[in-house]
Amino acid sequence: MRSRPSPWRARYQQRFAAPQTVVVQPTTWCNLDCRYCYLPFRKLKHQMPLEVAEALAQAVAQFGDSGHPIGIVWHGGEPLAVGQQKFAALLAPFEALRQAGRVHHYVQTNATLITETWCDLLAAYEVRVGVSIDGPAALNAERVDLRGKPAFDRILRGIAQLREHSIPFSVISVVGTLGIAMPEELLEFLTSLGGHSVGFNIEEIEGANTDRQPPTAGQAEEFWCRTLTWTRQHPGAPALREVERLAEYLQLIRSGQRGAWDGRRLDPIPTISWKGDVVLLSPELADTAAPEYGDFVAGNILDRPLPAILRDAHRLRYVRDFLTGLDRCQAECEFFDFCRGAQAANRYFENGDLTTTETNYCRVSRQALVTALSALATKEAVA
Questions:
Q1: Cross-strand pairs, 70
Q2: Fewer CB within 10 Å: C terminus or N terminus of the chain?
């Protein structure tokens, strides 16, 4: 007699696709000590053994070829802090996959360590670069080194190296209570850097960052209103990640392609720690002490292949709680059609419970963006 399929497996498969992004932690250590950083172990110098990278490459090779390369994102603490020789050694197990177009490497860096020889290595492996910088010096003041000294000039030097060597890069900026009131200045500066796209992370309560006051929903709506206005006035500016996502949603809905949007499933975003532990749903959950959820560890790729860990994701209590939260979001929230209810880490760090729904992240990063666009459209209609 065949066993009945698990309802939890069905619910998971309805919500989640095969991973298209794998986040990899080559080291816990960071040479900066940003005041809003959520990483609890950024002052510990753990480094990923080569055997973990080899096991991960073998696992990725087992994933079906979707026609799109899987993004291998080297992220947190500062990936370049492992040094060029070690970084190249970690990339090496993936080289056959990269040459075959099965993977593409990304690195999220503070750029302070980038040199000419780093640029040569990044170019050789076609690593796509994301730079973390929060704006001009005054808005970047929270990004300091371990001695408390501003990192701004060193970040600019790293960006200059990328530009000099024609290495494309994107920019991610954390927007705090100061920057939220200065979108035009922020956008002008970020555009001047020469990156191809910009993403805004409005400061969140998560991980080790729990005692700061994040921007409010009202501040965020004003920020997005002014941001949307600025982007319309500057059509040659870099693509803005959040605006692009909203524009894609609206384009599909208006062109009768709702099914293409509704059919999209979430990426489980497996995050591989330096020692091979696997955390699902949100990279920010890695290294989190949460006994009720087994510290969010789904397994270790040195003990069990990643595809097998993912096949059993529906058995994890925290994944089941998150699925319950997604169902509640879909039933209760008017923004779900656009938002899709992601960001498990914010539910946990803000509400302490993955079955919950709305978070401040929802209000400032998704809801405020939609209401800002609606307010601008209404103003234009009245005018």
A1: 103
A2: N
- In sequence order, the 6+-apart residues with CB closer than 8 A to the CB of 40 are 207, 208, 287, 288
Strand partners, 130: 108, 170
Number of CB atoms found within 10 A of residue 133's CB = 24
What does the pLDDT look like over 94-123, one tens digit per residue?
A: 999 999 999 999 999 999 999 999 999 999
One-character DSSP codes across 53-104: HHHHHHHHHHS---SSPEEEEE-SS-GGGG-HHHHHHHHGGGHHHHHTTSEE
Helix, strand, coil % (nearest 5) of the chain? 50, 15, 40
Q: Per DSSP, what are the bridge partners of residue 198?
A: 171, 240
Q: What pLDDT digit, counting tens, does each position of 6-62 carry? A: 899 999 999 999 999 999 999 999 999 998 887 777 888 999 999 999 999 999 999
